[in-house]
Amino acid sequence: MDREMANSTPNQKLQPSTMSYTVEQLIVVNPYNPNILLDLENYVNEQVSPQTYSLSANQCLLRIYQFESERMSTQIVACILIKASSTNHERHFHGGFTL
Fold first, then answer.
1. By C-alpha distance, which of 94, 32, 23 is closest to 54?
2. Would you give the DSSP letter of residue 1?
3. What is the pTM for the complete model shown?
4. Which CATH code of 1.10.1040.20, 2.20.25.90, 2.30.30.100, 1.25.40.250 fits the domain covering 19-95?
C-alpha cells in the first residue's frame, strides 16, 4: 500500500523526492483526475498476485472509468471484481456495484 506513484502531468519534469505520491494520496487529492488512471490500473495489477486489496483505490478507478469510458479496460474491471469477490469482506463486492 505504500507503493509510490509519479504524478503524471504532461511536459513537467518530475523530481522523485517532491513529485511522488502513494496511491492513497493520489485518490484523496485527485479522485476524478484521468491522469492517475495508469497509476491506478498498475496498482490493480499489483493487487492480483499478493494478498493485498485496496477498496478505495479500486472504487476510485471504477469512478474514473464512468467518466472516461473510452479508456476503460475490461481486464482491469474483471480483476477488481474477482479480487473483491475473493475478499472476506462481503460489503466490498457489493460496494463495487453501487457507484
1. 23
2. -
3. 0.58
4. 1.25.40.250
Rounded distance between C-alpha atoms, residue 96 and residue 84, angstroms: 8
Alpha helices in the chain (DSSP H): 23-29, 37-48, 55-67, 74-85, 90-95
Q: Tens of pLDDT along the chain (99 residues)?
A: 444 444 444 333 333 333 457 888 888 988 888 999 999 999 888 887 777 888 899 999 999 999 999 999 999 999 999 888 887 655 555 555 555
All cell numbers assigned to 63: 469512478
